[in-house]
Amino acid sequence: MKFIHLTDTHLVADGGELYGTNPKQRLRQAIAHLLARQPDAEAVVVTGDLTHHGHAQAYAHLRECLSALTLPVYPILGNHDSRVVFKEYFPGVAQDEHGFIQYSVDFGSHLALFLDTNEPGVHWGVYCETRAAWLRARLAETDRPVLLFMHHPFFPIGIPSMDFLSLRDPAPLLAAIAGHEARIRHVFFGHIHRPICGQYRGMGYSTLRGTNHQVALDLHGSAQCIIGSHEQPQYAVVQVDAEQLLIHVEDYLDCDRQFLLHEMRDGAAGLK
Ligand SMILES: [Fe+2]
């Protein structure tokens, strides 16, 4: 199974600029790039902050951009999104019995679980007992390996301002996954706008830069100030099978200055 991880597209209603760059243009460039370079990808996941203000016209722009993809797209909500407006523009995306945008998909031999951490009116994440009951039920249905997708991380990532806005109370989620950690092979998240990978309680995790603006590596700053940056946007190429989970990150606006580094003529003897 090979899929593309996009995150934090932050589209705006007028299709114009946000923080000095154009999120719609940059998403279009990402999609054109991945279609050209990763034609064997089987799906695209977008881990939230699909829009910047949750405006209807921004979701219309998103739908227009994603229409260029012929492969399945699996979006979830971030803190900048509107669940109500999202449903109007993406009625085909599954939701749980309580209306949260939560659903499961078969990713090869893995069960992919997409979680909803959006809470209207706040920027931190919420994963309440109601949502956690859905997750607990999905995990109880199978003993297959699991991939989790969510916007907010449920563990600290070391940037004080972003940790202030992570999952506010991780207890319901941690209780739902208790005993299943060994088969949760990876947690894919968004929100941080930076490339990060690691492990938490034995579960691998990763995120990456958004497609528009980024967050600076500010490990000693204030919890009250998020420092932005204009580092290159990214998408990730993920391959997962029974033996390995492999993630490549592509700076898709800054990878065309390529050159022949070395040509192998007769194996190691030709190396200099
Ligand atoms: Fe974001």
From TrEMBL:
Calcineurin-like phosphoesterase domain location: 1-195
GO molecular function: 3',5'-cyclic-nucleotide phosphodiesterase activity; metal ion binding
EC number: 3.1.4.17
Alphabetized Pfam families for the sequence: Metallophos
Top-level EC class as recorded in UniProt: hydrolase
InterPro entries: Calcineurin-like_PHP, CNP_phosphodiesterase-III, GpdQ/CpdA-like, Metallo-depent_PP-like
UniProt keywords, alphabetically: Hydrolase, Iron, Metal-binding
Coiled-coil annotated residue ranges, if any: none
Protein family per UniProt: Belongs to the cyclic nucleotide phosphodiesterase class-III family.
PANTHER family: CYCLIC NUCLEOTIDE PHOSPHODIESTERASE CBUA0032-RELATED (PTHR42988:SF2), PHOSPHOHYDROLASE (PTHR42988)
Protein name, entry field: 3',5'-cyclic-nucleotide phosphodiesterase
Source organism of the structure: Orrella dioscoreae
